[in-house]
Write the structure tokens for this entry.
Amino acid sequence: MADFSSPGGSVSVTADLVVLTVQSNELRVLLVRRGIEPYRGAWALPGGFVLPDEDLDAAAVRELREETGLTAPVGHLEQLASYGTPGRDPRGRVVTVAYLALLPHLPAPVAGSDAEGAAWAALPVGELAFDHARILADGVERARAKLEYSPLATAFCPPEFTITELREVYETVWDARLDPRNFHRKVTGTPGFVEPVGRSIAAERGRPAQLFRRGPARLLHPPMLRPTP
Amino acid sequence: MADFSSPGGSVSVTADLVVLTVQSNELRVLLVRRGIEPYRGAWALPGGFVLPDEDLDAAAVRELREETGLTAPVGHLEQLASYGTPGRDPRGRVVTVAYLALLPHLPAPVAGSDAEGAAWAALPVGELAFDHARILADGVERARAKLEYSPLATAFCPPEFTITELREVYETVWDARLDPRNFHRKVTGTPGFVEPVGRSIAAERGRPAQLFRRGPARLLHPPMLRPTP
DNA sequence: GACGCTTATCGTCAGCATGACGAAAAAGGG
DNA sequence: CCCTTTTTCGTCATGCTGACGATAAGCGTC
């Protein structure tokens, strides 16, 4: 880090969120409708300014809570990347630190103070404000990759879930079909991926499925493989 | 992204670099000795302020060139993560966008204008200014992980290299021993990882080795596996 | 030049994980 | 009771990996 003898000028910093969830076999992202200029009326990623004495991660957690009402440590939140190309915001120099959140499906989102509304949008979405289409694409790509070598697919599931529900998460995020038998063997055979609850739940049809909760593993060795075609 | 009705206050943004190289079977990082307060005389990661009309990536490229004299597209450069905890810089609110660079070994580094000197330091390094120890740790961990599923180890090698040189890169970064025969089979058997040049080079002892250059592959499927113990 | 030493490269083989797919178990409905 | 559906367990061929033997191709020495 250099000195302040030639400071680069001051910058505004925002924390914006790519909030993904899986519902009805669709990958959905949380969007807000902008209530002010620029891009008034356009859809954008939720987010806002980092407060003067606020950590970046804390700002992301706060924005997530403001938009979803989430307070408990549910799902998953991680930093995605930062975007600071000059001109990306017509109001001036803005650097955005983007975060990626993976959540189980929740009740309807709450519109923030500066938004006219919020909604879950199925992918692919249409036009977005600023460079948010690029940020969203990066987030989706990160999520797809992380399902391979981490157990993060459980972040899309409720606390207790069936193997079939978990498989449908993979199939939805990857847009691929997985063999239920091999998937079952792989998931239950990977130590720490999921842990049996001991109870079963009856589906609408067919044999009732065992319930599982997420295990302590942080990485999958060997990874879950995405189908090649 | 929200509006400017309650801006979070302005922030200074720096682009700092974790520049890694492999030399003499050591993983080394480029450090500069700070010539000004705070942390005057302490070692720190190279970097500096993002200019008012400069892209983040461009700032990282510029800083890399200023510190190493690099101009050609050699090695690898990618964004690592951003750090903005309040108080991490005693002068005020500073958000640092860290970049990770992987380079083949180069001549002695050049000291920047605001540094008393620059040097390659073998890992682990001692105390660093600011939270640079944390940034460095994140960068090293990213590099170690990327060697598994990407051909980025070639970024540590000169344009033409032998399989043994490439293996020594893996052994150094991972601090592990790899079987030369299995490594040779894996590297030459992965399409697009390396391409034979057609010539050989004589080492000091033993049979001369074929020369290779980096192939077009961006990902390794299946990945290179780190030894478990 | 034969020999020994070193390193690069090729082969072999057992073990494990995977993909494809059959089959049994466990429910509900006609 | 039979049929359908879904879950769960098995089987088998294949491919990748780890361990390690064997050969190739240089150099130095006697």
Residues 179, 181-182, 185-186, 189, 200, 202-208, 222, 225 of chain A lie near DNA strand C (CB under 10 Å from a C1'). Chain A touches chain B through 49 residues (CB under 8 Å). Helices of chain A lie at 56-68, 132-149, 163-174, 180-189.
